[in-house]
Amino acid sequence: MEDFTRKFRVAEEKETDKKLILSQVYEALSTKGYNPVNQIVGYLLSEDPTYITNYNNARGLMRKIDRDELMQDLVRSYLSK
Hints:
By secondary structure, the protein is mainly α.
């Protein structure tokens, strides 16, 4: 039996999922004629899902992302550049 340690990579996959979801929500909002940045910020500040369109299940996708984690990620990203 080999003695090795497996790596657990949930965090990386989770980040990819968040980026993919945000991209899909952004695209859905743009397609429907909304300003996607304003709508996403409105959702993040209020947690009111009506800021996000139902088009292409964008609202359901957005609700899969933990709001607080996303805001922390955004602040970290902004400050790291």
